[in-house]
Each structure stands twice: as C-alpha cells, then as structure tokens.
Amino acid sequence: MKYRLYTNSERAWNAMREAITNAKESIYWESYIFTDDALGRAFLDLLKAKAAAGVRVKLILDSVGSFQVLSSFAGELAARGAEVLYFNRLLPWWNPARLRMGWFMRTHRKLLVLDGKVGFIGGVNIGGKYRRWHDLQLEVRGNVVRSFARSFAKSYRMCGGSDRIAIPPRALTAADVAFLDHWPGARKSVLKQYYKAACARAKKRIVIATPYFVPHHWLMKELKRAVRRGVAVEMVLPRSTDIRVLDIANKVFAGLGDKAGLKFFFVPDMIHAKALLIDDTEGMVGSNNIDARSFDYNVESSVSFRDEGMVKDLRGVLEHWKSVAKPYAPPEPRRWYHAALELLFKLAQPIL
Questions:
Q1: Mean of the pLDDT values across residues 109-125?
Q2: DSSP readout, 83-150?
C-alpha cells in the first residue's frame, strides 16, 4: 500500500499543493473549512491555474464551515472554467436540497482526489490559523481512491452538480484499506457500526485521538465493556481546544470515563487529529470527532487499515503524543458544581 501520513497541517498542505500542481486530468476537493486568507488564496490561485490549463476542477465547500468564502471563490474559479458548489446552503431558506438534508446536515470531510489516482483524507482544514495544529492527514493510492471519487460524486450530485465525475477502474490488487463513508440519515450508521465492532474485537488496547470528546452513551458503554474485559482504553485529547465550551466538555467526560477505568492523556498543544488504534494491528484516520455532530449530523469520511506500515506509523504518532501529555487527574476537592456540570453535559450531549 502506497501512503504517506502527515502529522501536522503544514506538512499536509505542502503535500496537497504538490499533488495539485502535478494533477493532469481532474481535481475533486471537498472541504468543511476553506478560509479566505493568504493560505486559502494560495490554494485558490493554484486551482485557477490548473483549471485554466484544462484540468477539471470541482470544489465542494460546506456553506457553514466555509461561510466567509461563499461569494468570493465561486466567481473567480468559474471564470477559469472550474466549478464551486456549496453543501446545504443556508440561503435561500426555500433551498429544495433542504428537503433531503435538513438544516443541520454538514459536510465535515476533508477529501481530495487527484486524477483518480491519489487521495488525501483526514482532519486538516485550510486556513492559516491552523498552521501550528497537530493533525493527521493520509495520502493514499490504490483502490480506495476509487471509493473517494464515488463518494465525492454523491456529494456533487446532492449539491446540484450535473457534470460527470470520472470514477477510476478497479485494480485487481489486494486491499488493506477500507473506506468508511458516513452519511447521516442512512438506515445503518457506518461510524456507529465500525466503532462498536472495533471496540468489541479489541483484545489488548484501544487508543482514540480526538479534539472533542462528547461521546454517545452507546460508545461509552462499549468502551466500559472493553475495560471490563481487561482491554486498556486510552484517550488522547488536547489540553485546550479552539472552543471553550468543549474544553469543559472534554474534562467532564474525561472525569466520567476515568471513573470507569478509561485513561486520558491531555497534550499541551492543539490536537485536531481523529484516529483509532486497535491492538496495534488495526488503525483508522479520518474526519470524525467523538461527538453527536459527527455521528448524527455530518457527512464524514475515514479509512480503516490493517497495513503493517500504516499501523506502525500511527502507533508511533500516538505514542509520541502520549509521551508529552499530562494524564488526567480528578479535581480535588470535588465541588457541588462538578456534579452539576456532569448532568448538564449529559443532557446537552445530543447537540454538541
């Protein structure tokens, strides 16, 4: 399996720029956050140049996450022959797509497909303020990129796109990587099924990295079951996030998990990575947080893998983050408001 794992935003951006520069036929890109700043403009200029050179450029941006570029990017790219679509637009309020999506459905993905051969997937946003964030982004080749393109085509059609999205032919090779294509409202939740099965088959260790830990009751139940089986369950979180209320939520749910035997590690820098490691034999990297928005409202994409090299690299990153982290310590003394916060966040969990 040909791959590269990038562990911060800067490295991922550099690799994505190089891959876009080398694209010859098509660039399909779906992103939750694309900021109108120096970095976003640099990518925009690159996309305009590729479109002017005859490369098919299709860009899907979430209408909430990328709200500030709603009016600026579309015209500039269209003038060069590219196409920009916005996922589940807020305006006009009578938008017919809302009959299918509702108000809260968002594309939270960071999915880039080049020439149907190279794919990027993970948690990396496009914006200069994320430059110092630790994150995870995978660059992959192989059959899984075909799945990326098919999923992009689904988003493209939902946003009103009418052109044909080229899907590469399937290669006759063994696959150690599986695409997790999560769409809210589906009869079966891809993410829920995967996490439940992964936790159930763990025999020694589960490691989860996430910026926001506001888990559903069913996931806490699965993690507690694993602990009772003797599985070490470890959570890697940032000490401080970009959202103050979720800083509090992280500490509250860490306290609840600590009581059940889960171990929490708070890294001093911002970690925006979304990853799962099972028994040092299986890994997952993608866009989903451990919260209700990712599991219930967002379109998310991840890859799970058993490739030995990929698992080894992911394990190394997680172990490094743990080595610089501070283990969770329950507040002492425990005050009355700690119980109140636990109750509040349990009640608020379905909307966080």
A1: 97
A2: EEEEET-SSSTT-TTHHHHTTT-EE--EEEEETTTEEEEES--BSGGGTT-EEEEEEEESHHHHHHHH
